[in-house]
Amino acid sequence: MQLYNYARSSASYRVRIALALKGLSYDYLPVHLLKNEQVAPAYSVLNAAQLVPLLIDGEERVTQSMAIIEYLDETHPEPPLLPGTPAERARIRALAQDIACEIHPLNNLRVLRYLVRDLKVSDEDKKRWYRHWVESGLAVVERRLDGHPSTGRFCHGDTPTLADCLLVPQIHNAQRFECSLAGLPTVMRIFEACMALDAFSKTQASECPDAG
Amino acid sequence: MQLYNYARSSASYRVRIALALKGLSYDYLPVHLLKNEQVAPAYSVLNAAQLVPLLIDGEERVTQSMAIIEYLDETHPEPPLLPGTPAERARIRALAQDIACEIHPLNNLRVLRYLVRDLKVSDEDKKRWYRHWVESGLAVVERRLDGHPSTGRFCHGDTPTLADCLLVPQIHNAQRFECSLAGLPTVMRIFEACMALDAFSKTQASECPDAG
């Protein structure tokens, strides 16, 4: 398999974690977002959305990080990243989507660029925007996790799932943009438990071939 | 089953379509977003995210529209909304996420409110923002669908899938905000094919008990 991705892309990091949890090897193909390599013709023909990550598996091209992780889980079931009953799987997916649909889309590079370049938002207001969605969004995740009987060492039970693949990159982004992580004891306990595992720590941005 | 939702919420509309495609009956419980009923204590205890939709199925509370639709597909498999091989399912999920992760989060009510109230963006710039993400995002969807061998009468094959449940509400939003739909022949052909079905037309905002 081949993964087109970028060290600092949190959607890419989600997939690197999943591949590592599954013990799958792959070719790391960097697409440098700050150099706009994602809109170059050579990449655009592979992924019409001009986004990373993109997984190539033989003849298949799979896009969108959550769809890629579900694909990996269906094609390489062990260890399961969506274990349990339909209701448990729904809880895991909903936690993932609380991050992938409510927090991250508001804070990715092209959105921040639009705020500054097109809406002429000040740098200070851009940072306020970033922190607002991260902090309010993570507060929701904390409320969902705290005291829920299915919350374990990780977001759902005692093994990592899709939800943890989404949570950890979001926390890295929050730290990088100096968001407040106060009031998130369950989230941060789970983050630390994840980062103690190679699958999460050895795939983080600073460990990637294109780190910098 | 009971569905907490709101006529004009496109995430709610996605789930209403899926329930109708499955032929499932449910109690329609309106949560009026413009009246901020989603942040009232009575609703907040049910859904910590203070978002619609929320599906109640016996003891289970399921949130996040895509997670709800996957839950319905696992608990009521016919007709399948995620048919095919892992790669086909990944294509359907990726199309859905092209809308749910790249377009809709930038345009929902609380984001527009933040732009206006907190960042003091003008009404004109707010509309420009809205149209930018809808038009650029739907152009990506068009490029993915156009000419792809799996595109049929609907986004994937000749029966509606999860992808169509996401596409149709997004087009309704685009029409309401007067976005340009030029250059989207495949998207609009599929939209018309969907709207010819009761599952899509009889669940749209204007047909809901809380329409207005």
Task: Give a brief rundown of this model.
Chain A has 212 residues and is of the alpha+beta class. Helix content of chain A is 51%, strand content 8%. In chain A, helix 4 (86-100) runs parallel beside helix 8.
Describe the structure.
The structure is a homodimer of 212-residue chains. Chain A is globular. Chain A folds into 2 domains: 2-79, Glutaredoxin (3-Layer(aba) Sandwich); 86-200, Glutathione S-transferase Yfyf (Class Pi), Chain A, domain 2 (Up-down Bundle), CATH 1.20.1050. Helix content of chain A is 51%, strand content 8%. The relative contact order of chain A is 0.15. In chain A, β3 (54-57) and β4 form a beta hairpin. In chain A, α1 runs parallel beside α3 (65-75) and α8 (162-176) crosses α9 (185-195). Chain A contains 10 helices and 4 strands, in the order βαβαββαααααααα. By secondary structure, chain A is an alpha+beta fold. The longest helix of chain A is centred in the middle third of the chain and has 23 residues, at 123-145. The first copy, chain A, has a 4-stranded mixed sheet, covered by helices on one side. The mean pLDDT of chain A is 96.
